[in-house]
């Protein structure tokens, strides 16, 4: 057990959807430090993707964005995106958490959110935020209002082409740039790693193409010739690209050898500012490029042009200068600060067979060198070339061009083992060159010292040797002689290293190569580095280029006195994946080891099935017959059209192509492509798990055609289609042709209530979001005809049934109770044919334009891994296991859960659970509250005296909500013409974080004294914009808002011109009013830290106990004689919780708590005061009591409806479910005797008088039905229902009931069951829609699932507290989604069934949530009052008292001594009732003074 003094006053919240955000804000606003951890790049979760929210159809982004900004700005919330929890160790109160931070590649502390990086990014990928309906860039931000507002780079690993390339050049990057037509940028990118693109575009062995994942689809991309394409463009340009040269370093480097390794090193060192001299023993530079490769493969002009760039950098090349002869190695070292050895391998390897010294034996290396240097060598007509490498191919093809008639290859292995490039072999064969395989020379045959032939021996392939190729084994007795005029051995080559001093640190290997460090290319001699063929033996050009590049880096580090090797160890050939990184646990050593290996972004072939095949662009070759006689380049280059087409075949395996265009575009220097995984450690006192959910993969229900038929979409995709910020800007359209659909079908329960796919649970939200989408879709497209196919309509939330009824009655949405069996596409129209069966068994086929699959909610994909890291258990379906007594408590103390991770649920329940979890976490850490927080950094307020109005106007596009109708730029230009406007601009989303920052900068830069924002609703955003002003030093009340969305673009969506003119009017009026605004100073209120709880049921008791955990005193006022309320009448819950024992335990805690004061048999007579300072008077058994408190929690509960339906109250065989539960618990003989039970649902619920669902009735029926079956499986139980609403995980109990042969018969509202008492038994008559006929059920007992009615005292209490009730009599929350326990009146909260009918676990959650919200007030000593308050002109006041009588808050009263009314600004809420009622015009209202209102009216008339 952790001591209180050792506890950590911080909480980690994992998951940043609305649950995580709400929990974080509650905790931070009540004195806790919060680490908000998410594995994504930004916060917001699925709610950020939604278009609207039901049942109010509020814009989801509009109600969410203020929350995003608040949590993003909060000084006590540290947002940690792209983190994965690896371990949580320790005890409640003090946990040590290890987090794995994934690379973002963009530094959030530097990123300004400007988006320049995304604008230049050449890679487009499917947008996950838009559910694949549009593209985004690899450098991206999910949505404009995202928090953090900085961008991120999507990089899933290293593209295999880059990993395979020895220079590790960004192949995918330059291919992407070529695709976009950015050819010079592509060249610059290539030259970052290879100064010889024109050379390598011709003679590279292109291992990148071998690794190319496109080959899994059709053919690898022609990467080599794409490189050649951009290089050749540069060669032919008027101005060649020469890299910028850094300031001179004052140090020199000597390079031995002017081959590709040496020249590459020279190129990069010269660029870094070093003086470089290259020493070349040959008469021309280029090494093997010029002396080995024939011109038909690599024209000399190409080599010269590439070398010319190196010389233009200032590199001196000294030809005919041999080290060891013209200058000693010792003198070379003395002359230079560092030396690079790139001398190549120019010595031929001997055959070591008899006769090799005869005339006519010309070694391949020598032959190529002499020919390329201009010497004429005749080999005769018949020439044998021995070897299978590129030297052999070059020699044999050069011999053909030199006039030899019969030229052939002798190779001791098979064709498959030949090391030469495939294309070289093929081109040689095209030119008529014969290949003799599995043959090895044993002696040279000759006469008079001249070659006449070669004796060979046949070979066969044995076991593989060290190279991996099968070893050739001689076949005994197979010798034979081949006549020939010349023999050209080309079996290998070696370096001439005789100039190197012995025993001075430079080690020579047994293969006669220089030994170097494989990462730094450093030799054992300080300051001496080596690379290329001298280090590897004969290899490829590109390997030599890499050695030169890496050696240049090492030399620069060496001369800069920086560790040469640090950070450079990277294994490119052995890949690891991100999932391997994620499996390293919390070990730093394991992470460090994993980071040394490249993460290959390889493609799974099954993911490439949908990729269409596109043929590779094939290069044009010279005619084989013609090219035998000349040295013209065999292969011609690509056209621009070909290059773009070939580049477009790239699969973008790594997503980010690493083209580095973003680096160049970023002024803030925020981009770091070397970012990598890091392990972090934080300490917290508690943990809240809120990772959210995944949506079901609709492709698993193949019968519906998702992923096959274009016009079948998921519900979340349809949300993005509807959204103004979505891919189609809110226009409802089909994906196949972009046309507006007419008939749209919604299919419910896709991936829910489906045991075939393993998801037996109900996802709780699908019926409602489908109804919402149908309504919104119809609002967007007037001719839309939505049809919803469903099994049960589960409208179990507050006002949900009313919402469904509205959909039916006002919008004409059709509901069909059926689960379609299949969806088929009609080929020509792409329409969809749905097959379904009506309830009466009729088979129907109906054609639709579009199908929307209402996909269910599933556990997050990381659930198992997260649970393991946190040490918590999951329930059978993979959701988090929760405690029956506290639904936010997990299996581990100190770790809490909220939102859909605990089971599928809607936003209000999610928000309530978030606040509940916050209450539990802060209760654990109450003693450490305030120990780790920081105060908000608010600048001093600017004094505007003497400045006058200087107004800035910000006009919002709101995506297309405004900008799609109103000509926003025209409104901005108009605003610039208005008096005192010194700045005007438009914003895509003014509520986004980057715009908020920019607004603050503009206020300061332009010395603004007034700010006007023309955007959406002040109800959701005014506070946000006022805070922007405040953070810039401007009084928050010098802000005015024009609502050009709700009051303009939405109501005039079909009148763009008129809407634009109206927007101008509204802006003009707001600007006019703003000139008269004055800075206001809100007062401060002291806070009493006690709480009044009205109601002592389960909710009230829970609230009191949770408050006590927080250290706050509470007063429970209960009108009954005992505590417990409805919960006291329960025996057990559906899940098996012993309600009696649970309640007894709670009551004991209440009794034992010194902080809880209970008043039973009590009525509230009067509540006076305001937030932080209430005084309540109660009457208790004729004895009054008064107490003071700062907050009120309303938990007045509700009652079971008293009904006389179905013979209730007349027949003793008819009882309520609650009565039946009591009889079952007591094992009453009456129940034991009964053999048949019938239950009728929705008794008194979902009627015209009470059009709401009582939420718990179906669960109560399941509970009692299962208890009866448990008692005796042979007892007959039938439930007559309208819709079974066992939402969430309760669906399993419905499934179990069916398995136990509980029968279910549905009835319609207009054909209710009839009950007749026949004396000994009841006859229940009901029309069965499946049988399409009436049925009669005999019953020994009839149980009625009776609905809930609100507490009749709600209205009276509401008047005392100035809080409203809804049309049903339940209390009305401030916002149905995001403030479900708050009232609009500050300091008053609700919980339990005072809010709406609910289950006991819901009441517990909501009670804790109310406490959490109350703690945001109770944890403060002072709170700020409203600034826009009334004031009285005493000279005009007649002291009539009318204002006093009308004020709902008691904030104004007549002061007889002064003869005038006086306003208590602390109590005043700025409602304006007093102003409107004053006959003398003596009362005015700050922020809405007569002067301000009249000038607005005048501006409108102008």
Structural account:
The chain is α/β, with parallel strands linked by helices and 1502 residues long. Helices cover 29% and strands 21% of the residues. The strands form 21 sheets. A five-stranded parallel β-sheet has the order 5-2-1-28-39. Strands 14-13-12-15-26 form a five-stranded parallel β-sheet, sandwiched between helices. A five-stranded parallel β-sheet has the order 30-37-31-32-33. Strand 6 and strand 7 form a beta hairpin. The two termini are 73 Å apart.
Describe the oligomeric state of these chains in a short phrase.
single chain
- Sheet with the most strands? 5 strands, parallel
Question: What would the average pLDDT be, to the nearest integer?
Answer: 94
The SS-based structural class is alpha/beta
Give the spatial strand order of the biggest sheet: 5-2-1-28-39
Low-confidence stretches: none
Instruction: Provide the β-strand percentage band.
Output: 15-25%
Alpha-carbon Rg, integer: 41 Å
**CA(first)-CA(last) distance:** 73 Å
Number of E-state strands: 67
DSSP helical segment count: 44
Relative helix content: 25-40%
Overall shape: elongated
């Amino acid at each position: 057990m952790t001591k209180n003094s050792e506890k950590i006053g911080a909480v980690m919240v994992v998951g940043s959807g609305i649950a995580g955000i709400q929990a974080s804000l509650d905790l931070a606003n009540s004195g806790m430090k919060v680490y908000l951890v998410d594995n994504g790049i930004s916060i917001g979760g699925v709610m950020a993707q939604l278009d609207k929210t039901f049942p109010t159809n509020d814009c989801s982004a509009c109600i969410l964005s203020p929350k995003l900004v608040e949590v993003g700005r909060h000084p006590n919330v540290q947002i940690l995106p792209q983190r994965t929890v690896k371990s949580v160790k320790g005890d409640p109160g003090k946990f040590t958490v290890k987090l794995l931070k994934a690379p973002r590649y963009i530094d959030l502390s530097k990123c300004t959110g400007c988006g320049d990086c995304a604008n230049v990014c050449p890679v487009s990928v499917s947008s996950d935020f838009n559910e694949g309906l549009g593209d985004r860039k690899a450098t991206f931000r999910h949505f404009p209002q995202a928090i953090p507002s900085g961008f991120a780079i999507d990089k899933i690993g290293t593209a295999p082409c880059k990993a395979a390339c020895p220079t590790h050049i960004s192949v995918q990057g330059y291919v992407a740039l070529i695709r976009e037509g950015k050819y010079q940028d592509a060249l610059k990118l290539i030259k970052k790693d290879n100064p010889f693109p024109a050379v390598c575009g011709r003679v590279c062995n292109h291992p990148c193409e071998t690794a190319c994942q496109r080959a899994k689809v059709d053919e690898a991309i022609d990467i080599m010739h794409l490189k050649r394409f951009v290089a050749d463009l540069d060669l032919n340009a008027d101005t060649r690209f020469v890299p910028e040269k850094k300031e001179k370093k004052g140090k020199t480097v000597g390079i031995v050898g002017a081959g590709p390794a040496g020249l590459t090193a020279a190129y990069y060192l010269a660029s870094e500012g070093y003086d470089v001299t290259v020493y070349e023993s040959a008469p021309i530079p280029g090494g093997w490029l010029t002396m080995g490769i024939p011109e038909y493969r690599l024209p000399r002009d190409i080599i010269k042009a590439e070398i010319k760039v190196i010389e233009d950098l200032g590199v001196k090349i000294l030809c005919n200068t041999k080290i060891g002869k013209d200058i000693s190695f010792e003198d070379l070292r003395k002359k230079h600060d560092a030396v690079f050895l790139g001398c190549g391998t120019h010595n031929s390897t001997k055959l070591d067979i008899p006769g090799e010294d005869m005339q006519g034996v010309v070694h391949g290396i020598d032959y190529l060198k002499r020919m390329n240097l201009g010497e004429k060598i005749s080999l005769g007509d018949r020439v044998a070339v021995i070897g299978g490498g590129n030297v052999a191919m070059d020699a044999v093809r050069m011999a053909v061009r030199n006039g030899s008639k019969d030229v052939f290859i002798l190779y001791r292995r098979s064709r498959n083992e030949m090391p030469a490039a495939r294309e070289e072999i093929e081109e040689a064969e095209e030119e008529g060159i014969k290949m003799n395989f599995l043959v090895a020379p044993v002696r040279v045959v000759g006469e008079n010292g001249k070659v006449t032939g070669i004796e060979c021996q046949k070979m066969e392939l044995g076991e593989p040797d060290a190279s991996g190729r099968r070893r050739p084994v001689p076949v005994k007795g197979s010798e034979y002689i081949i006549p020939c005029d010349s023999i050209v051995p080309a079996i290998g080559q070696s370096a001439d290293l005789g100039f190197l001093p012995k025993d001075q640190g430079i080690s020579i290997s047994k293969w006669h190569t220089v030994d170097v460090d494989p990462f730094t290319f450093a030799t054992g001699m300080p300051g001496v580095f080596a690379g290329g063929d001298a280090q590897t033996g004969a290899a490829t050009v590109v390997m030599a280029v890499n050695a030169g590049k890496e050696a240049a880096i090492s030399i620069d580090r060496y001369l800069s006195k920086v560790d040469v090797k640090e950070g450079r160890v990277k294994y490119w050939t052995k890949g690891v994946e991100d999932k391997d990184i994620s499996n390293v646990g919390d070990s730093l050593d394991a992470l460090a080891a994993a980071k040394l290996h490249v993460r290959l972004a390889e493609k799974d072939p099954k993911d490439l099935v949908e990729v269409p095949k596109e043929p590779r662009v094939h290069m044009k070759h010279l005619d084989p017959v013609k090219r035998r006689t000349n040295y013209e380049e065999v292969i011609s280059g690509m056209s621009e059209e070909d290059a773009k087409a070939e580049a477009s075949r790239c699969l973008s395996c790594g997503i980010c192509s690493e083209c580095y265009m973003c680096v160049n575009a970023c002024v803030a220097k925020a981009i770091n492509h070397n970012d990598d995984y890091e392990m972090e450690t934080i300490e917290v006192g508690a943990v809240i798990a809120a990772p959210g959910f995944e949506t079901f993969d609709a492709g698993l229900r193949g019968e519906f055609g998702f992923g096959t038929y274009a016009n079948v979409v998921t519900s979340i995709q349809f949300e993005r289609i509807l959204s103004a910020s979505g891919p189609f800007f809110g226009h409802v359209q089909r994906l196949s042709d972009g046309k507006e659909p007419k008939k749209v079908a919604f299919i419910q329960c896709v991936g829910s209530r489906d045991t075939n796919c393993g998801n037996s649970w109900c996802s709780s939200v699908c019926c409602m979001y489908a109804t919402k989408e149908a309504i919104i879709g119809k609002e967007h497209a007037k001719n839309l005809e939505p049809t919803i196919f469903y099994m049960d309509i589960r409208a179990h939330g507050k006002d949900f049934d009313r919402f469904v009824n509205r959909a039916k009655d006002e919008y004409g949405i059709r509901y069909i109770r059926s689960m379609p069996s299949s969806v088929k596409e009609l080929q020509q129209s792409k329409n969809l044919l749905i097959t379904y069966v009506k309830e009466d068994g009729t088979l129907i086929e109906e054609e639709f334009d579009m199908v929307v699959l209402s996909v269910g909610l599933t556990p997050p994909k990381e659930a198992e891994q997260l649970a393991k890291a946190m040490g918590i258990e999951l329930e059978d379906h993979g959701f988090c296991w929760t405690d029956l007594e506290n639904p936010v408590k997990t299996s581990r103390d100190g770790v809490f859960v909220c939102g859909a991770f605990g089971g599928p649920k809607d936003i209000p329940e999610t928000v309530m659970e978030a606040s509940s979890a916050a209450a539990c976490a802060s209760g654990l850490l109450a003693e450490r509250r305030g120990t780790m927080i920081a105060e908000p950094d608010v600048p001093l307020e600017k004094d505007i005296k003497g400045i006058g109005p200087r107004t800035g106007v910000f006009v919002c596009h709101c995506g297309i909500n405004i900008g799609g109708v109103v000509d926003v730029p025209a409104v901005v230009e108009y605003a610039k013409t208005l008096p005192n406007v010194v700045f005007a601009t438009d914003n895509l989303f003014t509520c986004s974080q980057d715009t908020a920052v920019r607004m603050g900068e503009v206020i300061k830069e332009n010395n603004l004294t007034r700010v006007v924002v023309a955007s959406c609703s002040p109800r959701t955003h005014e506070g946000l914009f006022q805070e922007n002003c405040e953070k810039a030093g401007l009084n928050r009340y010098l802000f005015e808002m024009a609502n050009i969305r709700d009051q303009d673009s939405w109501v005039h969506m079909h009148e763009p011109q008129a809407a634009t003119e109206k927007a101008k009017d509204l802006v003009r009026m707001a600007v006019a009013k703003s000139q008269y605004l004055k800075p206001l100073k809100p007062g401060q209120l002291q806070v009493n830290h006690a709480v009044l709880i009205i109601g002592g049921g389960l909710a009230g008791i829970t609230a009191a106990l949770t408050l006590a955990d927080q250290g706050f005193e509470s007063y429970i006022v209960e009108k009954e004689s005992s505590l417990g309320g409805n919960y006291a009448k329960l025996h057990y819950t559906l899940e098996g919780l012993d309600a009696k024992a649970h309640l007894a335990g709670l009551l004991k805690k209440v009794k034992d708590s010194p902080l809880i004061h209970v008043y039973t048999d009590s009525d509230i007579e009067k509540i006076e005061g305001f937030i932080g300072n209430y005084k309540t008077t109660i009457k208790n058994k004729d004895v009054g009591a008064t107490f003071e408190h700062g907050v009120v929690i309303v938990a007045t509960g509700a009652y079971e409806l008293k009904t006389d339906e179905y013979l209730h109250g007349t027949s003793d065989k008819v009882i309520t479910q609650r009565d039946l539960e009591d009889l079952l618990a007591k094992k009453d003989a009456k129940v034991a005797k009964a053999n048949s039970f019938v239950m009728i649902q929705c008794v008194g619920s979902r009627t015209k008088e009470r059009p709401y669902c009582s939420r718990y009735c179906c669960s109560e029926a399941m509970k009692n039905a299962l208890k009866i079956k448990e008692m005796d499986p042979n007892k007959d139980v039938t439930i007559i229902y309208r819709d079974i609403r066992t939402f969430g995980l309760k669906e399993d109990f419905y499934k179990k009931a069916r398995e136990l042969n509980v029968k279910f018969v549905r009835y319609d509202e207009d054909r209710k069951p009839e009950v007749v008492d026949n004396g000994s038994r009841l006859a229940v008559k009901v029309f069965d829609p499946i049988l399409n006929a009436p049925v009669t059920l005999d019953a020994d007992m009839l149980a009625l699932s009776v609905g809930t009615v609100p507490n009749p005292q709600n209205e009276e209490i509401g008047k005392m507290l100035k809080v409203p009730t809804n049309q049903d009599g339940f209390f009305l929350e401030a916002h149905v989604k995001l403030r479900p326990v708050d009232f609009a009146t500050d300091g008053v909260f609700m919980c339990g069934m005072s809010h709406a009918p609910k289950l006991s676990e819901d009441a517990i959650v909501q009670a804790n949530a109310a406490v959490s919200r109350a703690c945001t007030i109770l944890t403060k000593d002072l709170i700020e009052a409203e600034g826009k308050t009334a004031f009285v002109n005493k000279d005009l006041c007649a002291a009539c008292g009318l204002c006093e009588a009308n004020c709902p808050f008691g904030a104004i009263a007549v002061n007889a001594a002064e003869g005038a009314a006086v306003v208590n600004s602390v109590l005043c809420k700025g409602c304006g009732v007093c102003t409107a009622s004053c006959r003398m015009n003596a009362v005015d209202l700050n922020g809405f003074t007569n002067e301000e209102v009249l000038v607005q009216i005048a501006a409108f008339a102008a």
